[in-house]
Design a protein that fits this description.
Length: 326
């Protein structure tokens, strides 16, 4: 599969806020193999300051805010003020959160983008500075779900972590963000009857699967079995879907790729993954866990995926926890 660090429904500016990391696979939509080694999410919790306290934010939660401040702002350090404190769980490093967000040019006061309000699709980000620029992470970390924050972000914190050189387009901004929800880390649906003849799945306490391949030849056709049935939204096509997943090679029984162990679920688009993986998600409900057995024709084809040890004749098995859709 191809991992995407930004969602297709997000405006162009927010796409640019997704950091490019060396752990992401290339642009080949059939390439799966990101490093499954655990990574520790990086995120800071900025303090309020005179600049963020002076940002005037009005309007009801869930609706686009009215924002005013005395531009131009001279921003040396990022500051954040909690405008309205929610009563949900506190957001932490590694969480995947749904937010509504408005971003303003700190020099001119002009609105740059605004999205996720009044029932429109939320923006989904991972609270990790290695995946998103520190400024957008700072706007949502360490506050309860339901909060609205005003963050005055330095140009330095609008630069992706690890980036080198200078970029004339990077500037200080003011971010107003509504933290709407935290995406679960595992499927929560109701257990379904086991389908005979397919690989079996056992779950650890944290939800990580262990797949056991039966001592038989793999099926020639795509097989999809719902292991847990969620009661959330149906996944349309196309869609951006946030999942936990594990991929196992039927021939070897070995895991070749997974999100488990990285500390965060993974967003995919249904039109940027191998066909079998997409078919396993489309039409399912959020909260479900799906087992899919993918023959080569629905996976990586005759070329296989040598970097992941996948040959052109290999059948693949994925366990997919469907956590959110946008």
């Amino acid at each position: 599969m191809r991992r995407t660090t930004s969602l297709l429904a997000v405006p162009v500016l927010l796409v640019s806020l997704a950091a490019c990391t060396s752990g992401d696979p290339g642009d080949d939509a059939s390439g799966p193999a990101t490093d499954p080694a655990a990574q520790t999410a990086q995120a800071t919790c900025p303090e309020p300051g005179s600049l963020s306290d002076a940002v005037d934010v009005t309007g009801d939660a869930g609706a686009a805010p009215t924002v005013a401040f005395d531009a131009p702002l001279e921003v040396e350090d990022t500051q954040r003020t909690v405008v309205t404190e929610g009563d949900g769980d506190e957001v932490g490093a590694g969480d995947v959160v749904n937010i509504a967000v408005s971003i303003y040019d700190a020099e001119t006061g002009d609105e740059i983008t605004s999205t996720g309000y009044d029932g429109s699709a939320a923006t989904q980000i991972t609270v990790d500075e290695s995946l998103w620029v520190p400024g957008i992470v700072a706007a949502v970390n360490c506050v309860p779900v339901g909060s609205r924050t005003a963050t005055v972000v330095s140009a330095e914190d609008m630069t992706p972590t690890g980036a080198t050189g200078s970029d004339a387009d990077v500037k200080a901004v003011v971010i107003v963000a509504d933290v709407q929800s935290v995406v679960p880390t595992r499927a929560t649906g109701e257990d379904q009857p086991v389908q005979e003849g397919l690989p079996t799945v056992e779950l650890a306490d944290d939800g990580q699967p262990t797949v056991t391949i039966p001592p038989t030849d793999p099926p020639a056709e795509l097989q999809i079995a719902t292991l847990k049935k969620g009661d959330g939204e149906v996944v349309p096509d196309p869609a951006n879907v946030t999942v936990q997943y594990q991929g196992v090679n039927w021939r070897t029984g070995e895991v070749f790729d997974q999100s488990w162990g990285r500390g965060t679920p993974t967003p995919f688009s249904t039109d940027q993954v191998v066909p079998g993986f997409a078919k396993a998600m489309i039409g399912q409900t959020v909260g479900s866990q799906v087992l899919v057995v993918i023959p080569p024709s629905e996976g990586y084809g005759e070329q296989g995926q040598p970097s992941a040890g996948i040959e052109g004749t290999d059948t693949l098995v994925f366990v997919i926890d469907i956590l959110a859709v946008s």
